[in-house]
Each structure stands twice: as structure tokens, then as C-alpha cells.
Design brief:
Helix 5 links the parallel strand 5 and strand 6. About 45% of the residues lie in helices and about 15% in strands. The two termini are about 15 Å apart. It is of the alpha/beta class and about 220 residues long. The longest helix has 18 residues.
């Protein structure tokens, strides 16, 4: 299993990075990305601290770790600039907090994230046909999430993927130990969203492809 959307104490997660990595490893994850909530005020702080541990901890915890951010409630017009800043600061993966129906995310966030070419658009809510088509054209991956609340629109996201052809990934969006779902539960949530077994396997392969793009040294060979 690979999960590319997790939160530590560097935003609103409950665990320090080392413990989150250990718990993920114990459940069966082979690779994870720390993607703490970021805006212009904290992006440098998050990445400078996560990068201190990523390489060494990947070796000694036997789980590959990527340092990233989730751009969260950033005004849509500022998303491209902040994405570039994050990449320049060493982010291996950039996620954007999409227009989930359970939070007051600014309209236009999905569109701005896709236009900017982020790696993953998380929990995009009621993704529009225009943005679904654009995600396919831009090669932006879109998330099927196991997280409560955000997962309410998983079925819609899947239907848009089938119609417009963008690629899906499955993520926990973990903030606490209980959010780290097992392989069995991950599969059941995917099926519950309406995924076929083949679509589930393709989504897992898509996560491997993102790892390779991010410069994975072990898992995505």
C-alpha cells in the first residue's frame, strides 16, 4: 500500500512524523507522503523540518517517506505561486485541498489547482465536467479518499473519472492513528465508491507512478 496524503503535528495531525511512519509501516504501508496543511505563512517551516528526516528515516524505518504539502484554503489566484514556492523548497509532492462539500473551500480552487499542474487534487467534491476534462489533459491525479466526510462524493469523482479519463489515487488523508486504514478496508472503501477491482488496482498503480515521478529510490522501480 502507498498513501500520498498524511498529516503530522506540523499542521493538524496528532502524531510526530516518526510515529506516523512507524504506525503506517506496522499496518502495511510501503511508502507514504507527509503533506501537512500549508499556506504562505508556514510552507517553508513545514518543508525545512520534514526534509531533515525523510532520507534517514526512509532507510531505518523500512518505509519510503516523501516530504510534501497540502495547499489548504489558499486563495485560488495564489495557488500557482505557492506551488512553485513549495517545489523550490524541495516538496516532492504537492497536493491541493479541493472543494470538499464538508468545508467552505473557495470556489475555483479545483480549477486553479489543475491549471497549476499540482500532483494530486484531494477530495474535490462535486468536480465539474470542465475541471474533470482539464485534469485529464493536464495529467493531474484526483483523489478517492477514505476520510469521513470528504468521502461523501467519492462516487461522483469516480463517475467523472470514467467519463473524462483522469487518473485516480486512493489516500487516507490521515490526521490520527485511527485514520490509517488497513489494506482490506482500503479495498472495501474503493468498492463502496463503485470501483471495480481493475479500477482499484489501477489507482494503486497510479500511486506508484507518482512515486517514480517524485524520485522514489526504492519502491517505484
Amino acid at each position: 500500500m502507498i498513501d500520498l496524503h498524511m498529516h503530522t503535528v506540523y499542521s493538524d495531525g496528532e502524531l510526530i512524523p516518526a510515529e506516523l511512519a512507524r504506525r503506517a509501516k506496522a499496518i502495511g504501508y510501503k511508502a507514504i507522503a507527509f503533506t501537512d496543511h500549508a499556506d504562505h505563512s508556514n510552507v517553508e517551516h513545514i518543508l525545512s523540518n520534514l526534509q531533515k528526516m525523510v532520507n534517514d528515516y526512509s532507510l531505518y524505518t523500512e518505509i519510503e517517506i516523501l516530504a510534501g504539502v497540502e495547499l489548504t484554503h489558499v486563495p485560488p489566484a495564489l495557488i500557482p505561486q505557492l506551488m512553485d514556492t513549495a517545489r523550490n523548497l524541495g516538496a516532492q509532492i504537492v497536493v491541493v485541498h479541493g472543494e470538499t462539500i464538508v468545508e467552505p473551500v473557495a470556489a475555483g480552487t479545483n480549477h486553479a489547482a489543475i491549471m497549476a499542474g499540482v500532483d494530486v487534487l484531494a477530495h474535490p467534491g462535486l468536480l465539474t465536467p470542465q475541471d474533470a476534462s482539464l485534469a485529464a489533459d493536464k495529467g493531474v491525479y484526483v483523489e478517492i479518499t477514505t476520510r469521513k466526510g470528504h468521502s461523501l462524493t467519492n462516487g461522483h469523482v469516480l463517475s467523472m473519472a470514467r467519463k473524462y479519463g483522469f487518473k485516480l489515487v486512493i489516500n487516507n488523508d490521515a490526521h490520527a492513528p485511527g485514520d490509517l486504514v488497513s489494506k482490506e478496508m482500503r479495498y472495501k472503501i474503493a468498492l463502496g465508491a463503485g470501483m471495480s477491482e481493475q479500477e482499484y488496482l489501477q489507482a494503486e498503480q497510479n500511486s506508484l507512478d507518482i512515486l517514480a515521478k517524485a524520485g522514489s529510490t526504492r519502491i517505484a522501480k
